[in-house]
């Protein structure tokens, strides 16, 4: 098990030290300390969750309404440079984690063959 822990810690440290991840943490602190910004992000997350549920349960009218609400809140957020940067960095982090996951999965699958 120790053979796994060291590379895992190295990966976590490498990711944590990336400049965009450090900036993401800085922005999270700023947002958490600003109720207006925090509420915009929470509202967007709530709408996204509702939209996913509406689509899952095939609630077409509700999904359309949630999509309109999501578009409006995103436009509002994009008028706030700090939140726009935050969301862009979140997208970048998500993409990076997806790539890491695919690489690890590929390596595991290759090891099984």
In brief:
The protein has helices at residues 2-16, 19-32, 35-56, 60-78, 81-112. With 113 residues, it is an all-alpha fold.
In terms of quaternary structure, the protein is single chain
Q: Are there runs of 5+ residues with pLDDT below 50, and where?
A: none
**What does the average pLDDT come to?**
92
Percent range of helical residues = over 70%
Give the percentage of residues in beta strands: under 5%
State the total count of DSSP E strands: 0
String of helices and strands: HHHHH
Structural class by secondary-structure content: mainly alpha
Question: What is the count of structural domains?
Answer: 1
Described by strand count, sense and barrel closure, the largest sheet is: none
* Continuous helix count: 5
Shape assignment: flat
Evaluate the radius of gyration.
18 Å
Distance between the termini: 22 Å
Keywords:
113 residues, mainly alpha, flat
Structure write-up:
The chain is mainly α. The chain starts with a helix and ends with a helix.
Question: Mind sketching the topology for me?
Answer:
Elements: H1 2-16, H2 19-32, H3 35-56, H4 60-78, H5 81-112
Helix pairs in contact: 2-5, 3-4
